[in-house]
Every structure is written in structure tokens, then in C-alpha cells.
Amino acid sequence: MSRLIINSRLPGMSAGSFRKLLLATACIIPLVQAMSAAAQVPAPSYTFSIPAQPLSSALVRFSSVTGIDVLFNGTLPAGAHTQGLSGSASPEEALGRLLARSGLSWRFQGANTVVLTDSAATSAAASSGSATELAPIILTSETAWGPVDGFVATRSATGTKTDTPLIETPQSISVITRDQMDVQGVNSLNSALRYTPGASGDLYGTDNRGLGVQLRGMGTGNSGVFYRDGLQLKDSNFAMFNAIESYGAERYEVLRGPASVLYGQATPGGLVNYVSKRPTEEVLREVEIVGGSFEHYEGRFDFGGPVGNDDTLFYRMTGVMRESSTQIDFVDDDRLFLAPAITFKPDEDTKLTVLGQYQRDRSGWAMQYLPASGTVSSNLFGKIPNSRFVGEPAFDEYNNTLGSVGYEFEHHFNDVWQIRQNARYVWLTHEEQGVFGGGLQADGRTYDRYADGGSTNLQGATIDTQIIGEFDTGELAHTLLAGIDFKRHHYRDYASSGNVDPLDIFDPVYGSPIGPMTPYRNTETVQSQLGIYGQDQIKLDRWTLTLGGRYDWAWGTARDAVESDNNVNMKDDAFTGRAGLVYLTDSGLAPYVSYTESFNPITQAGFEPETGRQYEVGIKYQPPGSNSFMTVSAFDLARQNVVSHSGPGGATISQTGEITSRGIELEGVASLDSGLDVRLAYTYLDTEVTKETNGDSGAGTSDVGKTPFGVARNRVSLWADYELQNGPLEGLTIGGGVRYVGKTWGDDANTFKVPSYVLADAALSYKKDNTTLSLNVSNIFDKDYVASCFADGFGCFYGEGRRITASVRVTW
């Protein structure tokens, strides 16, 4: 990996469909080869496309292109800026042009190392006798999918599908790094999102399925908001992929706002991209033992490195085995997770990575449907415990087995053109059955119940082929992206329901018989989508303009053997666009403005495709000389033909005309040399239903002007941890955080409110040599709180109480 070293601080598809896709890919490759041959210009060494920017980031770009390390002994001149470099040049010529008028000189120290010096600063320091030797800082040319040191990521491929600095991306993106997850003891998508603005993972409280993700006030349900390595993991009506083991993630990237231009069918609130751990070129060995609350026992391992003595073949194997109960009585949360990966890199221009995954979950319903009386509001008989189980221990279960295999291929034809292709096949089998609340009787303690069960079998395939070119036209520097993607998913959902006796919710006695189960759904669904998209990131001096467009064709069928009137033939197509403008300043400020759209076809009888659009303005700030990043944004987001899921398992599906969400987000994150990590997030949302589909406002059934359930107007969170850098306790880290979530409406009719709550978390760890001892506590004060309600009688969900986790991690 190239680096800049500074001695001071520095800023199952059908055969026919598959043949069509292969033909399209086959047509693209020769076209790119012809373009690349035409684009080749005789050059002494390298082709550069470095726009005007701060000198430090320009030198990182130089280093990444040439593979030459840059060493600087001193302090970079304040506000050092370069006019950029475009075209072919030798390393010597490139350095001369980049450093022009900077006052810096350079010399080669070996074939792959350049030393920069500031003659004036060095002379002044020598004459005053005040020269100080500082510890070197290594600023790596961080890749879009690679590991991040600390909390602060500077690059992401989620926002543009190119290796683009976050400060140049005209949309809000949060990156939750591996280091942050380790310090905070993250064990799920829900907990990963706790300190992220505009995002929430606990809409349904203790739900362990990842169903309760909410982005910018838009509940995502099981609508395919979850991506892995840039490829969508499409859900069925009952089963979803959101709960993939978080230990297997290098990081989570949260893109807020519509993203259909790059990703096809997607909800306008945004998406969550799970970035997998990839093979490492250096030897990695890690074993961890975890234990904690709710009889939690877990073993983890993570191994990687070269295969034997081969410098072209690398591997990674990550695994988790867990046996655990949960906060809810009689509900387990057991898991087996394996993620093998291998990379073949025959040369610097070609790389193939194969990624696999197997996950087996055996659990129950960690989310319990409870009444508002006894949870949100008072009840004559007291408060319902947050561990209350309203099902039947011998009957309830929620089991998933899922797997995937895919690859990422990239080849650089030259310094201008490259081609990439990512593909994945997924499969999932799912079985569930449970007993759920149906409403509290007039006596205030007898709780009506019903039984529900179902299964899903799903197979899917996605392939995405991209061409990327980096070149100049006159004064303009371009990063051009053109792509074609195809996805096909086939799944069968089966569901049935039955009767079961009521339960005394304050003094439950289990063992009631389950009545005969009557099928109410037996649906076979096939969904396909083909998309062609293009994007150009155009740089002129300090300006970066991003333009993108996409055309999608979506088609599918849904055949229900139980209710024939639910049979659907769906065929939709749409164009979506995107535009954004960023201005980079010497001070690290980058104001931006953007507009983007989304398109999400729905395979339900009588449902229109969801569409969305968003206007966003903001300022990003990356202070020179500091490893920190801040974003302030304001947005106006509209979502038309909104599909919402309610009821047990999200099985009740409805469509609303339009929901508009306007808000402000603030995010600040820093990892400082002193050992301090900080993450601050604030979200303000004004969300309401602005248009009805078939409601009758005259009859009083319209929800226009109402706020959807579970949307808090204000959310604030602050996390900080500090690692002692010297002394007898060197390696000790102390951290903590506070989370505030404001009041939410308890139903879409806005008839009652769920109270706000404040939670506190803490972390303590000690690292000595290759061993790390950690202790994490979430919800320190064991506060009972309701995360949300969607109905008064049976739709309230407790959040998680105090969880204590201890671990021992050994690396070698």
C-alpha cells in the first residue's frame, strides 16, 4: 500500500436472462479495450489526474498512482495548496509541478521513497535551536472498502461506486468503522446505528432480525435497504438479510437519501452497506472469547494473510459461534457464522476476490407485541416487565439459514481505464411460528392471542459490471462511471394462522394448545430488474460536479395459491437522476448541494411503484492537520406510494400516498493523536403524511398531516473514549456515551405518544502486548423504556435493558 509519511500532524436467474447479461458484458469489454488503446499516450511513466486541492491530499494521490512513499521531515506550510497535475509525467516531473511555489524541495531516498524538505523552516528551527523530532504519522491511501484506523473514514465507494473522498461526495454518508464497533461492543446492526445521525435500528426494540431500521424518518421494513459490498440483499415478505453477523463486517456505511441512480430499486430514506472483511496481505490471527448478560457465550476467530509463501494469493476466514438467551423469557439467540474469502492478485493491475458466507440462526421472537396499557400508560395491575413473553415456549421459534457466494473482479487496462464486475448468488431458508398479542380485554389483564406460522425459501443472483475512466478534457478532470446490472430473485412464502387461548399478561401460565393452522398465504414470487447507469464526476479547480442517470426495467410475478385475487403481473420502468456540486476550500470546508431520485417497484396487487426525490444542502469539514470530519446537512425528502408493514412479522401491508420528511443532521467524528475518539450526532425531523392514496378525508379516515409512528423529532447522541498513551496504565481505554430519543407517536392516527428516553453506555478495555480485555455496558442504569408503538392494543415494543459484555481477545 502506498503511503505518505509525515513527521508532524497532517490532515437463480433464467438461462435466457443470463445469456443477455453475458452478451451485454461481452460487448462492453472490447469497447473498453478499444477506448483504452485509443486513450494511451506515449508517456515517460504515469498518467495523472490530480485536480487543484490541498497539497497533502494531492501527494497521497501521487503516492497511490506511483507506489512511491513520500516522507516529509518537518511541518507542511500552512494552507499549502497545489494547482494540480493532469496528463503524463515522470515521477520527477510530477513532483516538480505539484510542489511548484510551495517552498518545498525533494530528493529520492531509494527507488520508492521521496523525502521532502522545507529549507526555510529547517534553517529557522536550526538557528533557534528549537528543532523537535516528532513521531511519524502514516497517512495511507485508504481504499474504499479497506480497513480504517480509528473512527474517521475519509473515503467511501457507497456514495459514488468509485474510490471517492467523502468530502467530495455531495450526499450525507456515515461510516461506522471496525475500531468503533470494537470499542463500543457492537453486536448487531441495531447497536451499530446507535450513534449515527438520521438512522435508527431499534424501531421494534429488542427485535433481532434487523427489521426496525429507519432512515431519515422513513421506516424501511423488509424493503431491501440492506446491501453487502454494494450488492442488494433482497428480502421476501417474511424473511430478511439485515441480521448478518456484525463481527464479519469491516465497517457499515450508511448512505442517507435516494440512491436508485447507482443501485436500482431502493427506498428513498437511504441504504445500509455492510462491507465484508477481506483477505489481508499481512498475517492476521485473532481469537476472542465473549460472555455476558442473558447467558451469552460466544467464540470468535479471524485469520488472514498470504497462502503459504505465495505473494499473489491471500485468504481470510472469519467465524462466530454463539449460544445465548435474550432479555425476553424463553427466547434464545444462537448463531453459527462462517465467512471465507480468498484473493488472487497476479499483478498490480488485476485482482479477483471470492467472498463466501454461511449463517445459521436458531432463535425466537425477541420482539414481543405488548399493549400500551402497562407499558406506555399506567395499568391498574402495575407495569408489564420488559422480559414478558406472551407466546408459548413449546411452540415459538424464528430460524434462519442463509448463505452466499460471490466475487469481485477488477482489471486496470492502463492508468485511465479499468473494468470491474461484482456478482453474488444468495439463498435463504426460513421457518417461523409464534403466538402474538391481539389486544387487552376490558379487565386490564386478560390478553387475547393468536398463532401464526410461516416459511420462506429464497434464491437470488445479482451481477454488476462497471467501466471507470479517469481522464482530462482541457481544464476538466473526469471520473467517468458506466455500468449495467441485473438482479433476479425467486422466493416462496407460506403463512398460516390459528387460535390460542388468552393469557393473563401479569401472571402468565403457559401450555395452551394451538388450534388448527389455516393457510392464508402461499405465494411464489419472481422479481427481476435490469438497469443501465452512468455517472461523471467532473473537477475544475476547486469545484466537483457529479451528474448521474439511470434507466431501469423491472418485471415480476406473484402467484398466491390461497388467494387468487392476489396474483400479480408487474412490469415497470423508470428513469432516475442525480446531480450534486461541491466546492473545496483551503480551510477544509466543503459546501455542497444535491438532488437525487429513487424508484422501487412493488410486487403487490394494486400497488404502484414507490418513488422518491430529495433536495439536500450541507457543509462538510475536514480540518487540515486533524484526523476528524464533520457534516452538517439539511434535506427535503418526499416518498410517494409508501409501502408500510405492520402487525406480527410485518405481514400487514398497506400503501400511503406520500410522506415528506424535512430535517437537519449534524455529525462530528474525530480520532486524535492524544488517544481521544469522539462521535457526535444530532437529528431533527419534521415528518408527515402529505398526500393520501385512497383515504376518505370526509369520512375522517385520512392520515394527511399526521406523523408516522416511531419517528422522533429530535435525536442526540455523544460518544467519547480515551486511551492512556503512557505511564503504568498505558493501553487502558475508558469510554462512554449518552443517547437521547425524543417522543414519538404511538400510531399513524397520532392518538397517543410514546415518552422520550435517555440511555447511557460505557466501555472499559486494557491492551497489553497482544491481549485485550474489554468490558462493555449498554443502558447502564437498566432503564425500562418503550422503543415504539404502532397500535394501542398490541403494538408496543420494549427496548433493551442493561446488557453487560466481557471479552478477551488475543492476536498474534
Mean pLDDT: 86
User: How many DSSP E strands?
Assistant: 45
Name the CATH superfamily classification of the domain at 261-811.
Answer: TonB-dependent receptor, beta-barrel domain
What's the shape? globular
Which class best fits the helix and strand makeup?
mainly beta
How many alpha or pi helices?
7
- The percentage helix is under 10%
Secondary-structure arrangement, i.e. CATH architecture of the domain at 261-811: Beta Barrel
Low-pLDDT stretches are 5-44, 129-141, 695-699
CATH class of the domain at 261-811: Mainly Beta
Head-to-tail CA distance between termini: 21 Å
Q: Evaluate the radius of gyration.
A: 27 Å
**Main beta-sheet annotation:** 22 strands, antiparallel, barrel
CATH fold-type name of the domain at 261-811? Maltoporin, Chain A
Percent of sequence in beta strands: over 45%
GO biological process, one term: siderophore transport
InterPro entries: Beta-barrel_TonB, Beta-barrel_TonB_sf, Plug_dom, Plug_dom_sf, Secretin/TonB_short_N, TonB-dep_rcpt-like, TonB_sidphr_rcpt
GO cellular component, one term: cell outer membrane
Family: Belongs to the TonB-dependent receptor family.
Describe this structure in words.
This protein is mainly beta. It has a domain at 261-811: Beta Barrel (Maltoporin, Chain A), CATH 2.40.170.20. The protein is built from 7 helices and 45 strands. The strands form 9 sheets. It has a 22-stranded antiparallel barrel. Strands 7-8-4-1-9 form a 5-stranded mixed β-sheet. Helix 2 (55-66) runs antiparallel to helix 3. The two termini are 21 Å apart. Residues 1-39 form the signal peptide. Belongs to the TonB-dependent receptor family. GO terms for molecular function: siderophore uptake transmembrane transporter activity; signaling receptor activity.
